[in-house]
Amino acid sequence: MNKENQNPADARLGALLRASRPSPSLPPRFPESVWRRIEDAAAPVKPESWLDALAMLVLRPRFTFATVAVLVLAGAFLGAYHGTQAARQDAQAQYLAAVAPAALR
Amino acid sequence: MNRSLVIVLGALAFGAALFCGSYAAGQRLCRVCVAQPAGSLDWVRREFHLNNAEMARIQTLHENYLSQCAAMCRIVTAKKQEVAAVLGNTTNVNPVAEQKLAELAACRARCQSRMLQYFVEVSGVMPPAEGRRYLAQMQNFTLGLQEGNAQSTLEPAGHEHHQP
Questions:
Q1: Which residues of A touch B35 (CB under 8 A)?
Q2: Torsion angle, CA of B128/B132/B133/B135, rounded to 10 degrees?
Q3: Interval B59-79: pLDDT, tens
């Protein structure tokens, strides 16, 4: 507490100031409506359809990054496997072409 | 259009493009990295798990065979040209054409016989199990060649030896 608030003249002045600026009366059930709006804002948005739910899932950064990583890794591994198989077949074809040239066929 | 539908379709298209791009990149990279120079025997080494000593012997057999094969292929090509020349002047198969065809067939048979002999020699250098596997694969290939003769005789003759 400071000394100004203990001055009786200031206390009277404060009362006069409050009386000169009357605050408007609040609507009925004002605190309840404030709490209800706060709760509504904090609650997660419920999707209207499965498509909205899927779109919301797609837009989640964690889901997006995980999906991208899985797709890149799966594609690269599958491509590498097939590339290795194709290179092996190419090498076999080269060997067979060397030992059995086109004139024989 | 519905915003959610656009988002889902866009995500599907992006995912498909990402997967295809990764697949193509992985495939190309591996194919280039694993590719071997033409005429190389690396396929035989890797496929049948051969050591350096075995590969050196196979390399000698291979070079010896290729020189003989090239000579035989020149003979086959010459016989093909003779057959074409005889058949080009007539509308039916006369005795001369039949004789030339028989000579061509005999040349091919000698080539294939020598090829089988080469396969047997190479398989003999390999460990027994690998040798049997190699010989089985090559014999299947040779039999496949015999079945394909009629069709590929019509193709222009060419010598495609890849010398090491």
A1: 87, 90-91
A2: 130
A3: 999 999 988 888 888 888 898
